[in-house]
C-alpha cells in the first residue's frame, strides 16, 4: 500500500490500538486524522503521534457525517478509513437495553454509516480502503461479553458484505480480529481478562505492525494472533466439538470465581 501523503482517518484513537495504528501510519508517511470522544485525550494522542485531532462521536449518523466533513476539511480526500472505535458493555443475558444499544451503535452501525458516506466517492474514483477493527469475538465468540460478541459478529459480517460487493470496483476491505490486546479495554479485572491475557495478549504496537504488513497484501482477515485461524477452522468444521470446548472454558471460568 502506498500511504505516503495519503489521507487516513482512525476512529477511537485516543489510546490503545487506534493510537498505535495512527502512530505507525504517520511514521509511514500518511496524513492522519485521529478521532475520539474526549477532545483533550484526542488532542494529546494527535500531539504524540503527529496526527491531526478531530474529536467527536464516530458512531451516530450525525457524528460520522460531521467527522467525515471535518476530516475532509483537513485532508482533502479521505483515502483510507480505520473504523476502530469500540465498546465492551454488558456481560450476559442481564445486559441492559442501553448496553445493547451502545454496542450496536459503536461496534456495528458506525461502520455502516461511514461506508454509506465514503464508498460512493471511492467507487467513482476506483479506489478506497475501509478497515474495521472487529475482534476475534466477532469471528468466534467471547465468553462473558454477549453484546460485544454479537455486535462484533455484525461488524465482521458488514465488512464481508462490503468486500464481496465492491472489491471489483477498487474497494479494499479488511477486518482486524485480535484476541487479547493490552489496552484500557482489557484493563478491567475479571476471569475473562485472565483467560485472554493468559492466551497471549499483545501490545497495541504489535497489532499495528501486523496490520501494516496486511496493508501490503490487502488480505481481508488480519489476525494478530495467528492461532485464531485454527479456532475459526475448528468452529466451521467441527462446530459441536468447538462449542463443547468453549463450554469447558466457561466452566473453568465459573470454577475460578
Ligand atoms: N483490547 C482488546 O483485547 C481488543 C481485542 C479485540 C478487539 N479490540 C477492539 O479494538 C478496538 C480498539 O480498542 P482498544 O483495545 O484499543 O481499547 P480502548 O478502550 O483503548 O479504545 C477504544 C476507543 O474507542 C473510543 N470510543 C468509544 N466510543 C466511541 C465513539 N462513539 N466515538 C469515538 N470514539 C469512541 C473510546 O473512547 C476508546 O478510546 C475496539 O474496537 C475493540 O473492540 C480490542
UniProtKB/TrEMBL annotation:
<dbReference type="InterPro" id="IPR020904">
    <property type="entry name" value="Sc_DH/Rdtase_CS"/>
</dbReference>
<dbReference type="Pfam" id="PF00106">
    <property type="entry name" value="adh_short"/>
</dbReference>
<dbReference type="InterPro" id="IPR036291">
    <property type="entry name" value="NAD(P)-bd_dom_sf"/>
</dbReference>
<keyword id="KW-0560">Oxidoreductase</keyword>
<comment type="similarity">
    <text>Belongs to the short-chain dehydrogenases/reductases (SDR) family.</text>
</comment>
<dbReference type="InterPro" id="IPR002347">
    <property type="entry name" value="SDR_fam"/>
</dbReference>
<protein>
    <submittedName>
        <fullName>SDR family oxidoreductase</fullName>
    </submittedName>
</protein>
Amino acid at each position: 500500500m502506498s500511504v505516503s501523503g495519503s489521507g487516513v482517518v482512525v476512529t477511537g484513537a485516543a489510546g490503545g490500538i487506534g493510537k498505535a495504528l495512527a502512530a505507525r501510519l504517520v511514521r509511514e508517511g500518511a496524513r492522519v486524522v485521529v478521532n475520539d470522544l474526549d477532545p483533550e485525550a484526542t488532542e494529546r494522542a494527535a500531539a504524540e503521534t503527529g496526527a491531526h485531532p478531530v474529536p467527536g462521536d464516530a458512531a451516530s449518523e450525525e457524528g460520522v457525517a460531521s467527522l467525515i466533513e471535518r476530516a475532509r476539511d483537513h485532508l482533502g480526500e479521505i483515502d483510507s478509513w480505520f473504523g476502530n472505535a469500540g465498546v465492551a458493555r454488558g456481560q450476559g443475558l442481564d445486559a441492559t437495553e442501553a448496553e445493547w444499544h451502545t454496542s450496536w451503535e459503536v461496534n456495528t452501525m458506525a461502520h455502516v454509516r461511514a461506508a454509506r458516506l465514503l464508498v460512493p466517492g471511492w467507487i467513482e474514483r476506483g479506489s478506497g480502503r475501509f478497515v474495521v477493527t472487529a475482534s476475534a469475538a466477532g469471528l468466534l465468540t467471547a465468553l462473558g461479553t454477549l453484546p460485544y460478541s454479537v455486535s462484533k459478529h455484525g461488524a465482521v459480517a458488514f465488512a464481508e458484505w462490503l468486500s464481496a460487493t465492491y472489491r471489483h470496483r477498487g474497494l479494499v476491505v479488511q477486518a482486524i480480529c485480535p484476541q487479547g490486546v493490552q489496552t484500557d479495554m482489557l484493563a478491567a479485572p475479571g476471569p475473562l481478562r485472565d483467560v485472554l491475557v493468559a492466551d497471549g495478549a499483545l501490545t497495541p504496537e504489535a497489532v499495528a505492525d501486523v496490520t501494516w504488513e496486511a496493508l501490503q497484501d490487502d488480505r481481508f482477515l488480519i489476525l494478530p494472533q495467528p492461532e485464531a485461524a485454527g479456532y475459526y477452522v475448528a468452529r466451521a468444521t467441527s462446530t459441536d466439538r468447538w462449542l463443547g470446548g468453549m463450554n469447558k472454558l466457561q466452566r473453568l471460568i465459573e470454577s475460578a470465581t
